[in-house]
Backbone:
């Protein structure tokens, strides 16, 4: 698939560039490349007017595949290195958190989405209008969906 080819290409670029770039420059460059990829995915998913359950599952799988690139952003191993080190992906990749939330939204229930909006940090990454469009694409028209949308305040 195009997603697999893109992931492979970013890994190849990492292997080539790590020989000539400083770690900081490498992470900035990879973050820029990855940001381009995820922005395209975010835009294309948000542009869909109807997302069936099988499509949602396929899109989630694509997002999960791209998310595996996060291993490129792990801090370098040093003496005293913790195995629990957090990847620096969100630092170097604009919209990374929005992309992670999109992946969650694609496989969430309406109740989960409402909770993430009201109690979580979803509103930091999505506008009410963007989330409304996603809910309308993912869920059939119903009173439950209308109540969820109205609770967004959008």
Residues:
């Amino acid at each position: 698939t195009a997603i697999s080819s893109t992931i492979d290409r970013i890994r190849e670029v990492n292997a080539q560039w790590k020989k000539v770039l400083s770690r900081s420059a490498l992470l900035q460059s990879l973050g820029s490349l990855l940001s381009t990829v995820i922005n395209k995915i975010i835009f294309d998913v948000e542009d869909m007017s109807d997302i069936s359950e099988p499509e949602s599952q396929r899109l989630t799988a694509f997002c999960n595949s791209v998310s595996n690139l996060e291993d490129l952003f792990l801090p370098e191993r040093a003496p005293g290195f913790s195995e629990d080190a957090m990847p620096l992906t969100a630092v170097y990749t604009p919209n990374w958190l929005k992309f992670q939330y999109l992946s969650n939204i694609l496989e969430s229930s309406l109740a989960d989405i409402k909770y993430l909006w009201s109690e979580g940090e979803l509103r930091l990454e999505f506008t009410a209008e963007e989330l409304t469009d996603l809910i309308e694409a993912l869920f059939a028209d119903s009173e439950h969906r209308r109540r969820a949308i109205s609770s967004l305040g959008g």
Q: What stands out?
A: The mean pLDDT is 93.
